């Protein structure tokens, strides 16, 4: 298991690609395969293994500009952002294409979209720019229907991930389950290893994956003890009903 960084680690440069791979090791890969999703996580999950949030935000933004990482804002009242490797995103498009007949209009559209992705280092686009790159209004709408683009506003579109709703739903449900389990503890703390031995209702992702989620949201603190990682609810979370 990964330990949270100590204060001595603040001078170390944060590598988002390495951090993503570390977090992916905690993933229940079968979950993502079953739901037809690429490997992904919330950006705040990276906060749990980095010296500071600012370092993560800057490193992720830089990696996006270099075309290595894709950031997908969830929009609406939810300000969370999902991040994944650019190659994983392109591979997901390829897997969708593999299910289609090569003569199908969707196959041709996704093939052109894949080529566009390989040449682009952006995660959001002006609608007029996409049209200038050869995508018609109806084709852009079809990419929205397929789940690969979203309408940010009247003029802007952004990359999206198909079936992402099931991931956000399961993350929220698992998060709530873990918090309720910890709130029932006398001292509002529990060993991570203890949670892994329990069958917690509503948790479809791994305990470690949810721990990085809660730590990144600053809902819990994680301490290394002789018995393993101890999870403790933050004071302000304890007071929430």
In short:
With 241 residues, the protein is α+β, with helices and mostly antiparallel strands. It has helices at 16-24, 29-34, 53-65, 86-98, 105-119, 127-132, 137-146, 164-183, 192-197, 207-216, 235-238, and strands at residues 41-42, 69-73, 81-85, 124-126, 149-151, 156-159, 189-191, 220-225, 228-233. The protein is elongated.
Task: Describe the overall structure.
The protein has 241 residues and is of the alpha+beta class. It is 46% helix and 15% strand. The strands form 3 sheets. The chain has a 3-stranded antiparallel β-sheet with strand order 1-3-2. The chain has a 3-stranded antiparallel β-sheet with strand order 4-6-5. It has a 3-stranded antiparallel β-sheet with strand order 7-9-8. The N terminus is likely disordered. The chain is elongated and about 60 Å long.
The largest sheet is: 3 strands, antiparallel
Strand content: 15-25%
List how many beta strands DSSP finds.
9
Q: C-alpha Rg, in Å? A: 20 Å
**Straight-line N-to-C gap:** 31 Å
Neighbour order of strands in the largest sheet: 1-3-2
Count every helix, treating DSSP H or I runs of 4 or more residues as helices. Answer: 11
* Strand and helix order: HHEHEEHHEHHEEHEHHEEH
Query: On the 0-100 scale, what is the average pLDDT?
Result: 87
Oligomeric status = single chain
What ranges have pLDDT less than 50 throughout 5 or more consecutive residues? Answer: 1-11
Secondary-structure-derived class: alpha+beta
Residues in helix, %: 40-55%
Topology, please?
Blueprint: H1 16-24, H2 29-34, E1 41-42, H3 53-65, E2 69-73, E3 81-85, H4 86-98, H5 105-119, E4 124-126, H6 127-132, H7 137-146, E5 149-151, E6 156-159, H8 164-183, E7 189-191, H9 192-197, H10 207-216, E8 220-225, E9 228-233, H11 235-238
Antiparallel strand pairs: 1-3, 2-3, 4-6, 5-6, 7-9, 8-9
Helix pairs in contact: 4-5, 8-10
